[in-house]
UniProtKB/TrEMBL annotation:
Keywords: DNA-binding, Sigma factor, Transcription, Transcription regulation. The keyword DNA-binding applies. Residues 29-97 form the RNA polymerase sigma-70 region domain. Belongs to the sigma-70 factor family. ECF subfamily. It comes from Actinoplanes lobatus. This is RNA polymerase sigma factor (Sigma-70 family). Residues 128-174 form the RNA polymerase sigma factor 70 region 4 type domain.
Amino acid sequence: MTVPGDGADSDTDLLGAVRTGDTAAYGTLYQRHHAAARRFAFGLVSHPADVDDLVAETFANVFATLRAGRGPLVAFRAYLHTTMRHLSYRRARVDRRLEFTDDLTRYDACEPFTDPALDRLERSFAAAAFRQLPPRWRDVLWQTEVEGSTPAELAPRMGLTPNAVAVLAHRAREGLRSLYLQQHVTAADHPECRWAGERLGGQVRGRLAPRDAHRMRTHLGWCGDCRNRLAEIREVDGFRNPPYRQRHHVETSG
């Protein structure tokens, strides 16, 4: 086994060693990626004092996953950062609900409270979803939701009728919403769970084809993990404003 900091073993070799019970291998991974993890954590938390807690929880979570025979075979740092992002998001949601304070004025109806860390995450999720849309959908969303153009104004430029532009805009909004929800789903390891995870956003929005919807129902019937993931993004769908109604989210995508 390589001593920490030696660098002779690749991350892939170390991940394999952790799965066989070599805890020293995980120590090497920890030392190798700890500094980068802390830098990444600073961009996710509201208070610098929370950084070390988030980093420790993330490394512990990934270690437990690896010891259970799951988790990444390669790209350890990418998996670590993805896990950290989702842990941070869940923490922010809990903190948003449970905050102890003597000052209740900011919870008055006229002064809604905004959690900076949660908003930062939501903006990144919305921007990533927007970039994944087809160019024509991005264009119609930008023109209708950001520039404020009407379907009648866009119809000549797009070579469509006003009604067709309105239909295209509706499809684009639903596509953005599904992709936005999909950003909240952590990648799974089991092939069938990966298949389901890639479609949970569509499941929430009712956009799955009949064949996929049947396969999803069958999968959810036996997979408790995916039911929990589905419940999480249903909650997100319920308590957050749609990304296309938060124009600053789209604007951050450039």
